[in-house]
Specification:
The complex is a heterotrimer of chains A (about 230), B (about 240) and C (about 55).
Chain A: H1 2-21, H2 24-42, H3 51-81, H4 83-89, H5 94-124, H6 132-157, H7 163-190, H8 199-224
Chain B: H1 8-38, H2 52-79, H3 82-114, H4 122-143, H5 147-178, H6 194-234
Helix pairs in contact in B: 1-6, 2-3, 2-4, 2-5, 2-6, 3-4, 3-6, 4-5
Chain C: H1 10-39
The chains are: A mainly alpha (about 230), B mainly alpha (about 240), C mainly alpha (about 55).
C-alpha cells in the first residue's frame, strides 16, 4: 500500500518538476484564463446583470476552459517526447501511474485556478476573501472531478489526430455535474448562505469525485496496456 | 478471433436485421394508425399529445441502447470478446438514431403544450447528454485505427459514460427543483387510461423490435467489413 | 367540469410523426446501402474512414 503511495508521489513529482522546468505552459494557461475573464466582461451588459449574480458562472466556465486546455497539453507533451512509453516499460503499478498523473494535473490546474481567483476578484469586483475556505473547498472538489476524467481521456485522445477537439467533445459532458455543483455552492457562498444550504451539493461533488477517481484509476490500465 | 465460419454468415445476419427492422417499421405505421384513430384525444392537450406514443418509447430505447453500450463495454474489458465490442459499436450508432427521434419529437411536442420549443426537463436533458456521449464514443472510435486499442478505449468511455448518467440525472433534477417550471400538464401521468396505455405498450414493443433489427443489421455489417478486410489482407 | 374543446394542434402531431419516420426509415436506408456496398465486392477503404464506427 505504501509502495503505491510512494510511486504515486514519485510520478507526480517527476511530472510537476517537468512542469516547473518550463514555466511557459503555466504562464500561458494563466494568460488564457485572464483573457477568458476579459471576454466575459465584454460579453455581458453590465447594467442588466450585476457581477455578483453572474460571478459564479463566469468563474466556473473560465475554470472549465482552463482545465480543458491544461489537460490537453499534459499528454501531447508526453506523446511528442514518447516519454510515456519509457515509463510504461518499468514495472510500475498502473494505479500509481494514473494517480501520479492525476496529482500532477491537479497541481497544475489548481495553481492556474488559484492565481485566477485574485484576477476574478479584481475584474468583477467580488470579494472572495471572507469566503475563501469555502471557495477553496469547492474548487478542490470540482477540479478533482474535472481532472480525474480529464487525465484518462487525455491519455486516450493524445493518440488521436484531432486531440484538441476530441478531448473537449468527450470530456465536457463529464464536467457538467461538477460544474452544476460548483456554481450552486459558489453562488450560495457569495450570498453568505448558511452551510446547510450547500451541504447537499458538496456531498454530490464528493460522491462524484470518489466514484470517478476510483473508476478512472481502475480503467487506466486498459488505456496504457495491451 | 471470431471470424465467421463462412462468408455467407454476415450477410444472413444483416438480412435478418433488415427484415426484422422492416417488420418493426410496418409496426410503427400500425402504431400511427392506432394512435390516430383508435386512441382517445386528450382533452387538454389535444392531438399533439399523441406525439407521446413515439417520443416516450424512443427515449426508452435510447436509454436502453446506451445502457447496453455501457454493459457491453464493461464485459468487453473483462472478457475481451470482440463480439461485445462490435455489439457496443452497433448499439451506439442505433442509439443516435433513437436519440435523434426523441430530440426532434421533444421540441415539437413541447411547443404546443408548454409554449416553448425547448425545456431543460430531466428527460430531454438526459437524452441530449446521451446524444453527445454517443457521438463522442463514435468519434473516438473513428479516430482510432488499431482495432484492439479502439475496442479498449471506447469501452472505457462506454463504462464511464454509463456511470455519468445517474449523476446527470441527479444534478439536473436538483438543479431544476431550484427553478420550478410552471406545472402545466404532466403528459406521462401514472394514471393513464387503458387505451392510451395499450397504445404506448404496443409502440414500446415496436421500438424494441426496431432496436433489435437495427443492431443486428449493424452488427452484421461490421462482421462483413471485417471479413472483407481479412480477405483483402490475405489476398 | 366543462369539457372545453381540445386545442387544435394537429400540425405538430403530423410534423412529429413525419420527422420520426424520416429519421428511422433514413437509418434503415443507410443500413441497406451499406449492405449493398458490402455485397458488391471490395470496399477500397481499409482504414474504415466514413465507416469508422466498426
Amino acid at each position: 500500500m505504501t509502495d503505491v503511495l510512494r510511486i504515486t508521489l514519485a510520478v507526480a513529482g517527476k511530472d510537476i518538476r517537468a512542469e516547473l522546468h518550463s514555466r511557459t505552459a503555466l504562464i500561458s494557461a494563466l494568460v488564457f484564463a485572464a483573457l477568458v475573464l476579459v471576454l466575459f466582461n465584454f460579453a455581458r451588459d453590465p447594467t442588466a446583470v450585476s457581477a455578483a449574480i453572474l460571478g459564479p458562472s463566469v468563474l466556473w466556465v473560465t475554470f472549465v476552459l482552463a482545465a480543458l486546455l491544461a489537460m490537453n497539453r499534459a499528454f501531447t507533451i508526453e506523446r511528442e517526447n514518447s516519454a510515456l512509453d519509457g515509463v510504461l516499460l518499468a514495472p510500475i503499478p498502473r494505479e500509481s501511474l494514473f494517480l501520479g498523473k492525476l496529482l500532477a494535473n491537479l497541481a497544475f490546474v489548481g495553481v492556474v485556478e488559484l492565481l485566477t481567483l485574485p484576477l476574478f476578484m479584481l475584474f468583477f469586483n467580488v470579494d472572495l476573501v471572507p469566503r475563501l475556505p469555502g471557495i477553496l473547498l469547492v474548487t478542490a472538489l470540482a477540479t478533482t472531478g474535472f481532472v480525474a476524467v480529464g487525465t484518462i481521456f487525455g491519455a486516450m485522445t493524445a493518440k488521436t489526430r484531432f486531440a484538441e477537439l476530441m478531448l473537449p467533445v468527450l470530456l465536457l459532458p463529464f464536467m457538467v455535474p461538477p460544474l452544476i455543483g460548483a456554481v450552486q455552492v459558489t453562488s450560495r457562498l457569495l450570498a453568505d448562505r448558511p452551510l446547510s444550504e450547500m451541504w447537499g451539493w458538496l456531498r454530490l461533488l464528493a460522491l462524484y469525485d470518489v466514484v470517478f477517481v476510483v473508476l478512472c484509476t481502475l480503467a487506466f490500465s486498459a488505456v496504457v496496456d495491451e | 478471433m471470431n471470424s465467421p465460419a463462412s462468408p455467407a454468415d454476415p450477410k444472413r445476419i444483416i438480412r435478418r436485421g433488415l427484415v426484422l427492422s422492416t417488420i418493426a417499421l410496418l409496426g410503427l405505421a400500425l402504431v400511427y394508425v392506432i394512435a390516430l384513430r383508435y386512441t382517445p384525444v386528450e382533452a387538454r392537450q389535444g392531438l399533439a399529445q399523441k406525439i407521446f406514443y413515439v417520443h416516450v418509447p424512443a427515449a426508452w430505447c435510447a436509454l436502453l441502447a446506451f445502457s447496453l453500450v455501457g454493459l457491453a463495454s464493461a464485459l468487453y474489458l473483462w472478457l475481451r470478446d470482440v463480439r461485445l465490442d462490435r455489439f457496443a459499436a452497433a448499439s451506439a450508432e442505433v442509439g443516435i438514431a433513437f436519440s435523434a427521434v426523441m430530440l426532434t419529437t421533444g421540441p415539437i411536442w413541447a411547443k404546443p403544450i408548454w409554449g416553448t420549443w425547448w425545456t431543460w426537463d430531466a428527460r430531454l436533458t438526459l437524452t441530449l447528454f446521451l446524444f453527445f456521449l454517443f457521438v463522442g464514443y463514435l468519434a473516438l472510435r473513428a479516430a482510432l485505427h488499431d482495432p484492439a486499442e479502439r475496442a479498449r478505449f471506447s469501452a472505457v468511455v462506454g463504462i464511464l459514460g454509463l456511470l455519468l448518467v445517474p449523476f446527470i440525472h441527479l444534478s439536473v433534477y436538483l438543479f431544476r427543483t431550484l427553478h420550478p417550471q410552471p406545472i402545466v400538464l404532466k403528459p406521462s401521468a401514472p394514471s393513464l387510461p387503458p387505451e392510451m396505455l395499450r397504445t404506448l405498450l404496443l409502440s414500446t414493443v415496436v421500438f424494441m423490435l426496431l432496436y433489435l433489427g437495427f443492431v443486428t443489421a449493424r452488427y452484421g455489417l461490421t462482421l462483413a467489413e471485417e471479413a472483407r478486410e481479412d480477405a483483402h489482407d490475405a489476398g | 367540469m366543462m369539457q372545453a374543446e381540445p386545442p387544435s394542434n394537429g400540425e405538430y402531431l403530423v410534423a412529429a410523426y413525419v420527422a420520426s419516420t424520416l429519421i428511422l426509415v433514413g437509418y434503415w436506408i443507410r443500413l441497406w446501402r451499406m449492405m449493398k456496398k458490402s455485397m458488391s465486392g471490395r470496399a477500397d477503404s481499409v482504414s474504415g474512414k466514413g465507416e469508422g464506427t466498426r
